[in-house]
Automatic annotation (TrEMBL):
This is DMT family transporter. The keyword Ribonucleoprotein does not apply. Residues 13-141 form the EamA domain. The keyword Transmembrane applies. The lineage of its organism: Bacteria, Pseudomonadati, Pseudomonadota, Alphaproteobacteria, Sneathiellales. InterPro entries: EamA_dom, EmrE-like. Keywords: Membrane, Transmembrane, Transmembrane helix. It comes from Sneathiella marina. The chain crosses the membrane at residues 12-30, 42-61, 73-93, 99-118, 127-144, 156-173, 185-206, 218-238, 250-267, 273-292. Pfam families: EamA (PF00892).
């Protein structure tokens, strides 16, 4: 049974903000694996396989509790894993900033799903938070000079990732009582299945097949990257079982501040006054969301 007090939402809210910070730096291991010769979706395959390997004991230890609910668990893992797979792959097909911003149309999808399926009300505080967050995205992307419409495969993958994430977090929220580690395992397994399927069906569209030597050389770094991925997923999944999809999407916007800033510092992507204003609006959306809910 979920608790409903404002105080019960504080730690999950802080957790999802922390997850956003880790997600904001996630492009670094992805592109590092790309520099080792793994193109497109292949860095994801190595990381997901490593994370699944580290989390596999959970399946053995918790099988009795997982078995009765394996179908909804697998379904939520498929959607959140698909979001993870599309997001990670998009980082090698477009700029970091475009991946992050197009993904963060998520609060729109989350709010719609919450109203339709969870019976949530569209409150004034949530409306202000959405306007602030999406306004910040428009400012960063170039309001008045460029509309944030997908222009390449990476952009489309980022947009689709946001849709899948909203669906996946709604399923996580409705499940609620499932152990976080079990859900994290379903998360990476779903990402592994979706990425593997995309490579089988799409072929070189999602990256040329690496040589055996390239794969072997990437395994050690892939395992290290998996150790980064696991706490990131735990901090993402646990709050998602306790907060609504719209709130998860809004609070995860902390990723935008970290992702845009780190990309500007480390990869030379633009970060000027427009980006500062935009990220402040996005951060403000998270603050408004938390204060608006706690005031009830």
């Amino acid at each position: 049974m979920k608790t409903s007090g404002a105080s019960s939402d504080l730690w999950p809210s802080l957790g999802i903000i922390g997850a956003g910070i880790l997600w904001g730096l996630f492009w670094l291991p992805v592109r590092a694996l790309g520099d080792l010769g793994l193109e497109g979706a292949w860095p994801g395959i190595v990381m997901y396989a490593g994370a699944a390997l580290f989390l596999s004991p959970v399946l053995v230890v918790s099988w009795k509790t997982i078995r009765p609910i394996w179908k909804p668990l697998a379904l939520s893992g498929l959607f959140t894993g698909a979001a993870f797979a599309c997001y990670a792959t998009s980082l090698l097909f477009t700029e970091v900033i475009r991946t992050i911003l197009l993904f963060y149309l998520t609060p729109v999808w989350g709010t719609l799903l919450g109203i339709i399926f969870l019976g949530e009300k569209f409150t004034l505080s949530r409306a202000i938070a959405l306007v602030s967050g999406l306004g910040g995205l428009l400012v960063v992307i170039g309001l008045g000079t460029e509309f944030p419409w997908p222009r390449n495969l990476g952009d489309w993958l980022a947009l689709i990732a946001g849709m899948f994430w909203a669906l996946g977090t709604m399923l996580l929220y409705r499940m609620g009582t499932v152990a976080t580690l079990a859900q994290s395992l379903s998360f990476v397994c779903g990402a592994l299945v979706v990425t593997g399927g995309a490579l089988l069906l799409g072929g070189d569209i999602f990256g040329a097949t690496p040589s055996p030597a390239q794969l072997v050389g990437a395994i050690p770094f892939g395992l290290l990257a998996a150790l980064y991925v696991i706490p990131m997923l735990i901090l993402t999944v646990w709050p998602a079982t306790r907060l609504s999809p719209a709130r998860v999407g809004i609070l995860l916007m902390s990723e935008v501040v970290v992702g845009v800033g780190s990309a500007a510092l480390l990869s030379g992507e633009p970060f000027g006054l427009r980006e500062v204003i935009g990220t402040c609006l996005i951060a403000g959306a998270g603050i408004i969301e938390v204060l608006g809910q706690r005031s009830k």
